Amino acid sequence: MKRRAVSPLNRAKGLISAGDLPAVIAELQRAVAATPEWHAAVVALGRAWLKAGEPDRAIEVLAPVVPRAGVHRKRAEEGIRAAERMKRLDRAPTEYVRHLFDQFSDDYDRAMVRDLHYRAPAVLRSLADMLFGAPAAGFDILDLGCGTGRAGELFRPLARRMTGVDVSQRMIACARAKDISDELTAADLDIFLARSRRRFDLLIAADTLVYFGDLSRIFRGARARLRPGGWFLFTVEKQPESGFALGPKRRYRHSAEYLRTAAAKAGLESMGILDCAPRIESGEPVQGLAVALHRYG
User: Fold this and answer.
1) Which of 8, 19, 141, 200 is most exposed, with minimal Cβ within 10 Å?
2) Contact call for residues 145 and 207 (beta carbons, < 8 A)
3) Does the reported pTM lie above 0.90?
């Protein structure tokens, strides 16, 4: 029985070094389906789900084997503890977001328009028009979570230079094929903001900050990357109560009060927070906020 599972498991090990996490999980699922009692494969699958930022799935896979995993019990228990820690984070794990959008990249544009009536980039462009009128192309723009470049397409006419950053290499590849941005970087957003030494006139983040609960680090990084007088425009999902909370779709929601307070602490002034619907889910508009923050000094 174990022999049938060896090939998928060996292929999964090779794919790990290539960074192809969706394929790794698929191969390990085949290995486990072929030989459910092969605890090495079960533990590897659980830890792969953990690497993908799916703690509930990791626990679901690992918990049943702990009492009978033998030499693999310690690794299973360590995986469960890591999953429990992950569930207490105040942001979506980087690997989860990367895994999500790597999977989604090939069909992203069509699915977002067809299924979700995705409007976050258009909402931000309308907000920019309200703030700036119709300026000549003169902004150095940083698109945070640029994805396939949908926001970049709308903001390119305002840009002297367009830079995009996204955690997903596959989304970056799709954006590069459109030839919209002057520069594209695959990186975690808060790390990019903290480490870059570049300055910009305008930062945009269309439906990106929903993967962060605590935005204090993002706001500090945004201020550091903005020139004096620069703007940060973004959308979030709306939290009716104060603070922020993780919603049922594993995206965070933020209240207007939280956004104003966190921005002020980072040295950014809220110049407008408007209700909007960045997309539609299950036939209903998602309640969101379009936000304009300004750096004065």
Assistant:
1) 19
2) yes
3) no
